[in-house]
Amino acid sequence: MKTRSKLLSLLFLSFVPLALLSGCDGPSTDGLLYNTKIHAVGSKAKMSSLLKEAEQENAKAYSGSGFFNTDDGPVAEDSGSGSRDYVDTNEQVEGVREGDIVKTDGYDIYYAPRYHNVIRVVAVEDDYDVTLARTIELGNTYVESLYLLDKYLVVIGYTYEEDLGYGDEEVMYYRWWSPTGTVMVIDRSTFDVVYQLITDSFFMDHRMIENSVFLVSHKYLYYGETEYEYRPIYKETRDGITEVEYLDYDSMYYFDDSPTYGMNVLTGIKITDEPDDIFYTSNAYLGASASYKKMYVSATDMYLVESVYHYDDNSYWTTSVISQYVLDIDNANSSYVAAAIVAGISLNQFSIDVYDGFLRVATTEREASWAFLEFFGWSSENKITNHLFILKVVAESESFELIGHMSEGLGKPNEEIKSVRFEGETAYIVTFLLTDPLYIIDLSKPSEPTIAGQIVQEGFDTYQHEWGAGNLIGIGYDADQFGSITGMKISAYNVTSGEEETLQTFAIFSYGYSDNSSWSYGYSEALYNHKSLLLSVEKGYLGFAVEAMEYGYTDGAERDWYYHYHSYYYLFKIDFSKENPIADPIIIQHPTSDDYYLGVDRGVMIDDYVYTLSDYGVITYSLAADAIVEPPLIF
């Protein structure tokens, strides 16, 4: 089932150079904001024409005379199944669910180990012991994310279909696997797949609100003289019967002056109690390459932001394309509202926020130019400018109005944005090159954002989370005075106006040599993925997995080289009433394998128990007893 609502994907505008924007219908504000228009494709002939134009522009880019694009407190889900208190996925917006590889309702834990095509269902018994209730085999489908509803488990993943090609008579062959975006709806009582939707595009991000899933995916497009199917394909399966549908050209859109290099597809799936009533909606938008994890979704609207690099003969510059869609939750559909282009590129979904009707977006603008010298070598000039935009939609003209802007003082020379967090009328922005200014920005007057304070320290945060009024926790990298990364750390800050300071920094691990005979390194997914954090401000806990490696040699007549890999889960108690808010961590170690890494993937909290999960199994920690619960559950 398809709808043809007038939709724009921000991802359309990827290839619009600023030089061409003079022809767009919309105001320009000091080169910081541009608006544009949307049109329906309508036919395959028009699609071919757009692709041919894009191919010509692409040829200019590679010849040096054109341009091209490249993309560089927790909310517990209430299943209604009981009164257990639980914390799993750390999500940005309350009421807007984000998919992850672990989900729980307090009674069952659904876990999709990385790089495997299975889902393990772990039952949490009355005494909080765990048992492996079931292993769901998914065949050639691999899980990227899970969503949990009362009746269903929703699986977002990829189905890999093997293609074989043969060479000469030597029976030399090659093979590849073509991934297709797949959504499965699994009945939690029978474990049957009651509905499946397979597309020919790659999912970039998704959210769930109530029983509606909204997905943004990307499909590459190629222009050629041979017959080529440009339309997105959907294979819908229920009751063992598969129906194939193609999205109509009337449901595809493009923008003025925007060459067509790819197609981004917005798909909605409405999940109903009766499997026969589940349906999907879709629209497609041309002109973009894939841009990941730059989607902000509120309870009513979706905002997409795409990073764009523009190239000329001897220079390049960056912009971001922002588009807004109103969400129809009842029908799992979305309708285009407005779009605009701003200077600079956004970092991730936390660079975007909506508050009191204002859209706030933080970007880092990169500009560079170069020239070849007459006798030898070449010279170049680079410039980095950080921006904070406050915008307001003008629905009548399908555009945005620039309400406020800040760039002056936002970062020292050549520093770029490393993390952003908006909280009500305050923004926390971290920039870094040699040292880390954490800027505290007052947004109470949208037309005049001001820096209310800053905290300078070595290293930088990649994620921040408010921990009650005036308190902030940051997770990121340690660095020395020269800007060289030395390890991972978490920091506790007082961000009260006039009292800004770092209260404590806890070094989790350090990089480098020890006694000139060993080298150590550590890593955590928490440095770039907020969903890997177990986070409860109410209970005062922060947890995440850490992988540590070390290698070196032992002294002796002959050097005996060794390598060790460790998989840990760090659980911190956070209490800002204490002089040092960050307590020494509880460290839970999972066994590892000589064959492959068995890193801890996630931790979930159910009442006073923390369950840490890896492909090895589940190790449970009792907060009340302050001890690991034996024995572990081994898969």
Q: Helices, strands, pairings?
A:
Blueprint: E1 33-35, E2 38-40, H1 44-62, E3 86-87, E4 102-104, E5 108-111, E6 118-124, E7 130-137, E8 141-148, E9 152-166, E10 173-187, E11 193-199, E12 202-209, E13 212-220, E14 233-238, E15 241-246, E16 252-255, E17 262-270, E18 279-286, E19 295-297, E20 301-311, E21 315-328, E22 333-343, E23 352-355, E24 358-372, E25 378-394, E26 399-406, E27 416-423, E28 426-432, E29 436-442, E30 450-457, E31 460-466, E32 471-479, E33 485-494, E34 501-510, E35 512-514, E36 518-523, E37 534-536, E38 541-554, E39 560-573, E40 586-590, E41 600-606, E42 609-614, E43 617-622, E44 627-634
Parallel strand pairs: 16-18
Antiparallel strand pairs: 1-22, 2-16, 3-41, 4-5, 5-6, 6-7, 8-9, 9-10, 10-11, 11-14, 12-13, 13-17, 14-15, 17-18, 19-20, 20-21, 21-22, 21-24, 23-24, 24-25, 25-26, 27-28, 28-29, 29-30, 31-32, 32-33, 33-34, 35-36, 36-38, 37-38, 38-39, 39-40, 41-42, 42-43, 43-44
What's the gist of this structure?
The radius of gyration is 26 Å and the shape is globular.
Descriptive account of the structure:
With 635 residues, this protein is an all-beta fold. Among the domains are: 409-502; 511-635, no CATH class. The protein contains one helix and 44 strands. The chain is globular. Strands 1, 19, 20, 21, 22, 23, 24, 25 and 26 form a nine-stranded antiparallel beta sheet that branches. A six-stranded mixed beta sheet has the order 2-16-18-17-13-12, with no helix packed on it. Strands 8-9-10-11-14-15 form a six-stranded antiparallel beta sheet, with no helix packed on it. 3% of the residues lie in helices and 54% in strands.
